[in-house]
Amino acid sequence: MMVAQSLRKTKKNYVYKAICPVVTYFCRSRPGQTRGITQFIMDFLWHRLPTLRVLPGPDEFCRLCTLSADDTWLVSSSFDSSTNFYLSLWHVESGNRRWRVSAHTDQVTELVLTSDNQYICSASWDHSIKIWSFLTGELRHILQHNDMVSGCSLSADNRSLVSASYDRFVRVWVVQTGRRIKMYDKHGTGVRWAQFCTHDQHIIAAGRTVCVWNVTTGAHVQKLGGHTNGISSCTLSENKQFLLSVSGDDERIAKVWTLATGTCIQTFQNKNSTRTGCFMSENKYIALINIEYSTLGIWRVSDGQCVRRLPNVRSISPHSYWLSGRNIECIMVSTKEDVQVLAVESSESIFTAKGYGGAEFQHSVCISSDGRYLISGFRYKIKIFVFSENKQRRNIL
User: Fold this and answer.
1) Is residue 35 part of a domain?
2) Which of the 8 DSSP states describes residue 394?
3) CA dihedral sign of residues 344, 350, 353, 354
4) Is the dihedral of CA 56, 63, 165, 260 positive or negative?
5) Containing domain of residue 43, as a range?
6) Is 83 domain-assigned?
């Protein structure tokens, strides 16, 4: 701790010595203001220049990172050159690893954590979902599908888990016991995504089409059509009232649905391949990635018009974020060389993590709920960018 404090002090002194002569030159007519202006610039920069922690560990390729609800713990999925797939639990503040287990025999596609820090659920291409004890890493249950599991999601009360698989089934499980309680099979093709919605009363799942199910009765409530070549990704709005569905390479369209009525309120026709998107600005806009030309398009939902394009963007996070101190909406994007937090309105780069670009990055980045940590897992390292060492300072995000 003393070493870390000494390094931060040295870094701050170095920045001060670099800034002070410049301020002195421009304030030579008002020398009494030099110190105050320099300190103001220092305070501004200190939120934009986060400190960096690198978590230790063996040479493993990090695939996924997920934070606990209280931002205290980090769960990571990784694999080595022998294609062994591991799960690890890290304490974010100290950077210590609490446990590491050999978890699956194929790629991990999803990690979800119960909000009470009791269980970790991992879905994999090895046809299984495994439920682990959070603080010990003990394997509690193995939930089986007949094909690759594409994802899973928890209910709001942490009691139920819904899983989607390429075996065409959506299954609902009891987390504590591992017992299967429901199974849905109306898709006719592999299911890529499933989540609870409307206060856990319904399940929405996407394969070639989007289907909505009643959890209590198991009845098929709605079928949202409009896609002919299968759906590559789906994103729920934060209030879970709207759904964004993005089609595959050939069709190249995205649709926004109102879940209450099952109606499509807007269709976005993209001339180039699109595979992912997200909602922004209280669901007034969506962001879509143009895969072929590596550009980010921001589209208005009300009239379907593209209002802004940002170049050199390869992937985006599934949600936008707000800078609490500056009241600016931001989105996290991955370019070829780095990862950036961009202000949506001005396209200003708020923060850049150099050397961590590429399509892989979209699978291994997360931001803490208070904006204190930006965590990236890329290749053989997990890096934690700490925007404020002092919790009393205002958060940048």
Assistant:
1) yes
2) P
3) positive
4) positive
5) 1-49
6) no
Q: Which residue has the tokens 């690893």?
A: 97
Residues with pLDDT less than 50, the chain: 1-11, 46-48, 360-362, 389-397
Q: In what order do the strands lie in the sheet with 149-154?
A: 149-154, 160-165, 170-174, 180-184
Burial, 83: exposed, middle or buried (Cβ in 10 Å; 0-12, 13-18, 19+)?
A: exposed
Local structure of 180: helix, strand or coil: strand
Comparing C-alpha atoms, which of 315, 354, 382 is closest to residue 74? 382
pLDDT the model gives residue 173: 94
**pLDDT score for 133:** 96
Return the pLDDT at 327.
Answer: 67
Compute the C-alpha angle 320/336/148, nearest 5°.
70
Angle at 342 between CA 341 and CA 348, to 5 degrees: 130
Q: Give residue 33's pLDDT.
A: 65
Residue 58: predicted pLDDT: 60
Q: Is residue 347 part of a domain?
A: no
Residue 43 lies in a domain: yes
Structure tokens that stand for 208 in this block: 């070639």
pLDDT of residue 206: 86
User: Burial of 260 by CB count in 10 Å (0-12 exposed, 13-18 middle, 19+ buried)?
Assistant: exposed
For the chain, the domain total comes to 1
Query: Helix, strand, coil proportions of the chain in percent (round to 5)?
Result: 10, 50, 40
Residue 266 contacts by C-beta under 8 Å, 6 or more apart in sequence? 255, 256, 301, 302, 304
pLDDT for the residue numbered 104: 93
Question: Comparing C-alpha atoms, which of 74, 68, 57, 60 is closest to residue 375?
Answer: 74
E strand or H helix at 121: strand 119-124
DSSP single-letter state for residue 37: H
Distance between CA atoms of 276 and 33, rounded to whole angstroms? 50
